[in-house]
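Preliminary data (for renewal application), cytidine-5'-triphosphate complex.
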Amino acid sequence: MMAEALRGKHIVVGVCGGIAAYKTASLVRLLIKAGAEVQVIMTPSAREFITPLTLSTLSGNPVITEFFTANTGEWHSHVKLGLWADAMVVAPATAATIAKMATGVADNMLVTSYLSCRAQVFVAPAMDLDMMAHPSTSRNLETLRRDGCIIIEPAAGELASHLIGRGRMEEPENIFGCLAQFFEKSSALAGKHVLITAGPTYERIDPVRFIGNFSTGKMGYAIANEAARRGASVTLVSGPVGNITTIDGVTVVPVESACQMLDAAQQAFPTADVAILAAAVADYRPAKQFDHKIKRETNGIEQIELVKNPDIAATLGAQKSENQRLVGFALETDHPIEHASDKLARKNLDMIVLNSLSDPGAGFGFDTNKITILFADGRQPASFPLKSKAEVAADILDNIESLIVCNQ
Ligand code: CTP
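Predicted structure:
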């Protein structure tokens, strides 16, 4: 059942120069047996530990080790590989490659492919116990975690050095299990249409000025990518954000203002199974928008009259049918649970994600977040520790899946 989830999936397997590289042969074999397509990339030193011929025979694809093949001049595109991948797993991941991945030192095919990879990346470290315990390794692994990688923790046991401790690469069966579980997760959202709002809204004052907020859109985009990874077709109605990449399955509808966001959301909502309202919508907009830039001397203004923006969540909440699920966010500074519960009821939501502003590392602009989820069906609230936004996205979607499953 689990292995079925890997059928047809494109998996990039990155192999580094460590003694555990011999175990990667079993991992590749398991992936191929499960019906996955595998492309192996080896670092130059990995070739000292296992031959490319072994891995190309098992994977059924020539192994890539260099940027180009010397005798044919064929160029290997890390960009294409990054886009091709449904997941990438680096096993074994040595201290050196972990450090390069954490700092973006793109001097081999493995690291360039990692940087180009839009899919989930798994990292299975393998090293001596002292290297594993070194603060530099811990720091680099923490950076990878924050960048959204899933670290498959090494086991404790006898190491190649005969020392006993933590650093032994997780067994290939367990690494395979992590990948299978990841793809297995797609089931409840697979084939569903998910509408997501993300980012800030800009409310124009004149052609060059606006009222806005500091939302970066990272949380909404992380949810969109994770939902697509689980097989949903995602409409992402996005306010103005920086360049955030999306994966196949996510259709971005760019908007600027709250009114435009409402229009786009209402267009998509009738066919949506789930709507997740992660946008930081401006509560007010200027009553009047100037066609020309306001000049300080000639038509300078002292006050801007504001009018209330539509509440997108509440509007969709009023239109919601019995088989649609609506999820909102709340960012509160005081009495967070009371205010979030109030919004949950007032906007007719099924679930609300409470963002903590008081915890360091959580909220706007950070790559991490700390959430509590409240439910309309009387379930107890669920609190989560500080995690990367990719991991938080997975927690949110796990809970949405439980709403879908419970209500089917
Ligand atoms: N929301 C929305 N449209 C708005 C305002 C909010 O869709 N005009 C959504 C947000 O995307 C979020 C939820 O409603 O999912 C709560 O947003 P928040 O700004 O906390 O709610 P407000 O109703 O504006 O409450 P507050 O008085 O705290 O500003």
